[in-house]
Amino acid sequence: MSKQFDVIVIGxxxxxxxxxxxxxxxxxxxxxxDESKNAKGGPALGGTCTNVGCIPSKALLQSSEHYEHAGKxxxxxxxxxxxxxxxxxxxxxxKDLVVKQNNDGIQFLFKKNKVTFFHxxxxxxxxxxxxxxxxxxxTGAAQESILGKHVIIATGSSARQLPGAPFDExxxxxxxxxxxxxxxxxxxxxIGSGVIGLEMGSVWRRLGAEVTVLEALPTFLGAxxxxxxxxxxxxFDKQGLKIELGVQVGEIKTGKKGVAVAWTDAKGQAHTLxxxxxxxxxxxxxxxxxxxxxxxxxxxxxxxxxxxxEQCRTSLPNVWAVGDVVRGPMLxxxxxxxxxxxxxxxxxxxxxxxxxxxxxxxxTSPEIAWVGQTEQQLKAAGTKYKAGTFxxxxxxxxxxxxxxxGMVKFLADASxxxxxxxxxxxxxxSELISEAVVAMEFRASAEDIARICHAHPSLSEATKEAAxxxxxxxLNF
Length: 477
Ligand code: FAD
Ligand code: NAI
What we know:
Blueprint: E1 3-10, H1 14-25, E2 30-34, H2 47-52, H3 54-73, H4 88-113, E3 116-119, E4 121-127, E5 134-139, E6 144-153, E7 157-159, E8 172-173, H5 175-178, E9 187-191, H6 195-206, E10 210-214, H7 226-239, E11 242-244, E12 248-255, E13 258-264, E14 270-275, E15 277-280, E16 284-286, E17 319-321, H8 332-346, E18 360-362, E19 367-372, H9 375-381, E20 385-391, H10 396-401, E21 407-413, E22 419-426, H11 429-441, H12 446-450, H13 460-470
Parallel strand pairs: 1-2, 1-6, 2-3, 6-17, 8-15, 9-10, 9-15, 10-11
Antiparallel strand pairs: 4-5, 5-6, 7-16, 12-13, 13-14, 18-19, 19-22, 20-21, 21-22
The structure holds flavin-adenine dinucleotide and 1,4-dihydronicotinamide adenine dinucleotide.
């Protein structure tokens, strides 16, 4: 007889594993099915984020930044480094260990919360039409059929391929191959100057590759506040990250000497980029092909994403979907918030996700982070706003750190002073943005932040000063 569960979660990434834990905390009998494998074929819980996304990329960003600091910036602090060398194999092994610690951590959390884990692919068999809910087949290391009153789909996303240039992970790399290139390529090409393009381009540039990024759009980081994107671009140019905008990519050929990419620039001139490796980072596609959605008539949109309402309900009763497999930003913390909210809704509670206060971070150097609306969005909507900026150049802690690039920028409603957006480019922007998220969640005004005591010397004083700048009364600039 098939095992019966209250909730079956398909996918063990940030959306799925967090939903499973929260549902278990709420007293449900929960199963989670995930098919990801580690190098030995064992389970690798944590999804894209843990295995080939957030965690390994941040590990390599940290290691490569140390390397760059040791080679280029320690001398400014009076520290001489002689005979600096790179042990890439060790750096990659450290990254793999960080990943494994996270995989193991989630297995531990499942045991602690009594979530039953199935290692394999989960797909719909049928709706039972009774209290038992849905029958889900598990195929892979585990082979069985289980029943769930509720099903949460959290199957995530995969890298989008360029037509005619499939990933071989040897020459043409997705995010997976990009995180395990065995030796630093002399010439590295990237297609797409989005988040992955900039983060992975930064890693390999710091380690010594000559990096060229080809971007289709004419504007750099179009979703980012223009002033912030301009400041970031200046820094990337200075670092030697070559970014070509308004590009049309043509034929891509691989051979013994690497990869040749035919491309046309914004003026229509034809070029060929010859590189040793090519990373294609042009967005991601939802993972729905393994679900057998047709078996139960689950509705997908034209991109193949599971169709959901704002509460993550799908077209089927008691079937929910969260994270990258549904609409909205493809971010781990967005997936987690949706996972928690769905588990709480199943329990009859009022789970809530505020889509207006989801922060974005690009972990380059300088880091770029923002929450809320950009100046161009406010202009387009005809919203009357006041802007205040404060440069890290005038912040004592930034000077002591030796990293004064960038600024904090506040956008507040012209009449109520409510914060509408906060944009940061500079050191530790990823951490600084949290204060803005909290403030916006509580619908604070710029004046509220300006009147809060911030530790001195700290980078967060730049946040306070930017809030003061909204009212044209900065104290240190
Ligand atoms: P996923 O993490 O993709 O997990 C889905 C899981 O379901 C996978 O394990 C998959 O194998 C499994 N699965 C799929 N189909 C089935 C099936 N039928 N049966 C069983 N299992 C199945 N986001 C951030 O917020 N911060 C970052 O710094 C960040 N960095 C990133 C860096 C890179 C290089 C990439 C590629 C992404 C990054 N992201 C980052 C995005 C983040 O990884 C995703 O938004 C997040 O992982 C989505 O979580 P999820 O649970 O929806 O899906
Ligand atoms: P992206 O959407 O960030 O960027 C893709 C870029 O490729 C865009 O600028 C787009 O204009 C360009 N592009 C699309 N087709 C093209 C073509 N044919 N030729 C040239 N350029 C083309 O997608 P990316 O970088 O692949 O990352 C996917 C998602 O993963 C991100 O959107 C984000 O949600 C998530 N992610 C988040 C990170 C973070 O939070 N720090 C880090 C990495 C990824």
